[in-house]
Amino acid sequence: MKLTMIVLIFLVNFCFAIKIADNGPNFARINFVIMGDGFTLDEQSKFDSLANLLKESLFSFTPYKQYQKFINIHRINLVSEESGTDIPSEGNYISTVLNSYRGTYGYGIREDIAEGIATDSIGSWDAVIIIINYHQDGGATRDKVCFFGIDDYSNTCRHEIGHAFANLADEYVGFTLDTNPPPYVVEPNVAVPPDTTPETIKWAKWVTGGVLWPTPNEGIYSWQVGLFDGARYTYGVYRPEFFCIMQTGGGAYCRICTEAIVLKIKDKVNTIDSPNPPSCNVGYTTEPLEFSLGLLDTENIHYIVRWYLDDSLLTDEQAHTITIVPTSFNFGTNNHTLKAIVKDSSTYWYHPGWDTVPFVKNDPRNLMQDTIVWPLIYGIAVEKATLAQAQPLFNVFSTGNAVGIRFNPQGTFRLSVHDIRGRLVDNMGSGFSRVTVQKQFRPLASGVYIVRLIAGSRVYSGKAVVLR
User: Fold this and answer.
1) Which of 10, 72, 230, 460 has a 20 to 30 A CA-CA distance from 61?
2) Residue 386: is its pLDDT beyond 50?
3) The sheet that has 127-132: what strands, in order across it?
4) Domains annotated on the chain, with CATH
5) How far is the C-alpha of 189 from the C-alpha of 24, rounded, in Å?
6) 442: buried, middle or exposed (CB in 10 Å: 19+, 13-18, 0-12)?
7) Does the pTM of the predicted model rise above 0.70?
C-alpha cells in the first residue's frame, strides 16, 4: 500500500522579533522595533536589507551613535498579501498587514495594530519604526509609532523618531498659520509666551550673553541658541535654533533636541550596568572587600566617578573598582555604607572648529547621574547570591491606590508595571531580598496592568486590576 503525504503550507505572520542590534537585556535598554508594511513574502529580503541600513544610519547619527550601547533594535518581518500601499486618490486599495496608505498630505497607518504586534513580540518597547514599501518620501508619527516611505527614509526616520521617542515637536511653519497658538506646549524644543524670556525659556542654560532676543530668522545666527519665531506649523511658537532636523527634515539635531534624546535614554537606562556585588547587604569581618561598577560603554561615554564611605569622599575617586580593607578604616563592629556616584559628562562635536559641547546642560531630574549603595554589615557572610538563584513566589494584588507584589527571591530582582499593551507605566528598579516583602507602586488609574518580575533568566508576570 502506498501512502501519500499531503503537506499544507499556510502563509502566517508569526510576528517574532529578531534582534539586529543586541546591546543587552531588553528591560535594561531602550528598545526600537522596525517593521515593514506592504512587503510580500518574496520581498522580505528587501525589507531585511532596508532594516539593516536603517540601523546603521541611526547608529551613525548623533546622539544615537554615541549611545548605541544603550539601545536594542528589533526587526519584525510582516508578510503582506500584496506589495505597496493604498493610494485612495487613485482608487488603488491593496491588502497589507498594517493597512497603510499614501494620502494627499502623507502616509497613514493602523498604529494600534503595530503597537499590538510589538508588544506581543518583545513586551515593553520605546518606539516602533515602520518602513512602507512605496517610493515616495514623507512620513508621520502617532504617539510612539513613526512611519515613512522608502524614498529618503534615512533622514525621514531620524526626524520622525525624534517625535516618537523623545516627544520632539516639528519646528517648521505649515501652509496655514494658526492665529491662536496653544497657551503652553510640553515638547522640550518649543515654547510660547510668557515663558520666552532668556531666564524662563526651557533652554535657558544654553543661552549665552549678547544673543538678540527674539533672534532674527537669518542665517548669520545659525549657530546661536536663542528665540526663533516659527514652530509647530505656526508663528508665535518659538524654537531654540535656526537649523535643526526637526525643522528642515535634514542635517543634525540642534543642541536642545540632542539633549532631550539623551535625557530620554538616561531616564530608562542605568549606566551602572553590572555591579559586583549587586546592590545588597555585604558582610565584613577583617578581610578586604572588592567592589566594581561595570559601567556601560566606557569607551564612548565619559564618566566621573566618586566613591564615598559613610558619606566621606575617598581618595581613589575616579576608579571603576575599589578595595575596602576594614582594618585600615577601623571599622570595628559597626555597620557602614559604601556609595558610588557616577556622572555622565560626555561631550560631542556639534560644529566644526568649535570645542566640544556637553550632551546635557539642563538636567533638573539629575538623570545624567546614577548612584549605587552597599550597606556593610559586620559579622554576616559575604553575599554571593546571583540572579540565577532567585526562586520567587509571585502574587500580584491591588490595594487602595497602588498595585503591590509579594515575592521572596533569594537574590536580586527587577520589577516593573506595564499597561495591557506592554508599555512601561512604572519602573520600581532593582534590589535584593531574602524574605517575603511588599512593594508599592505609584497610584494608577483604573484598568488592567501587567506586573513583571525578572529574576535570573526567568520572567514572571501577573495581572492586577485597579478599580476606582
Assistant:
1) 230
2) no
3) 17-21, 71-76, 30-37, 127-132, 145-149, 139-142
4) 17-166 (3.40.390.10), 168-269 (no CATH), 282-378 (2.60.40), 387-466 (2.60.40.1930)
5) 30
6) exposed
7) yes
Please write the tens of the pLDDT for every residue from 250-276. 889 999 999 999 999 999 999 999 888
Asked if 310 and 404 touch (Cβ cutoff 8 Å), the reply is: no
Residue 360 banded pLDDT, cuts 50, 70, 90: very high
- Over the stretch 160-196, which tens digit does the pLDDT of each residue have? 999 999 999 999 987 555 556 666 678 999 999 999 9
In angstroms, the CA 264 to CA 166 distance is: 6
Q: Which of 412, 393, 397 is nearest to 27 (CA)?
A: 412
pLDDT for position 176: 58
296: cell is: 556601560
Q: CA 256 to CA 203: how far, in whole Å?
A: 7
Q: For 86, which DSSP code? A: B
Distance CA 266, CA 272 (A): 11
Torsion of CA 304, 310, 315, 321, to 10 degrees: -60
Residue with cell 522596525: 34
DSSP string, 249-308: SSS---HHHHHHHHHHHHHH--SB-S-BS-SS-EEESSS-EEEE--BS-TTTS-EEEEEE
Please state the length of the chain.
468
What is the spatial order of strands in the sheet that 458-466 belongs to?
Answer: 424-433, 411-418, 447-455, 458-466
Residue 353's pLDDT is 76
As a whole number, mean pLDDT of residues 135-143 equals 88
- Cβ neighbours of residue 427 closer than 8 Å, sequence gap 6 or more: 268, 415, 416, 417
Residue with cell 581613589: 316
Q: Strands 145-149 and 101-103: what pairing?
A: unpaired
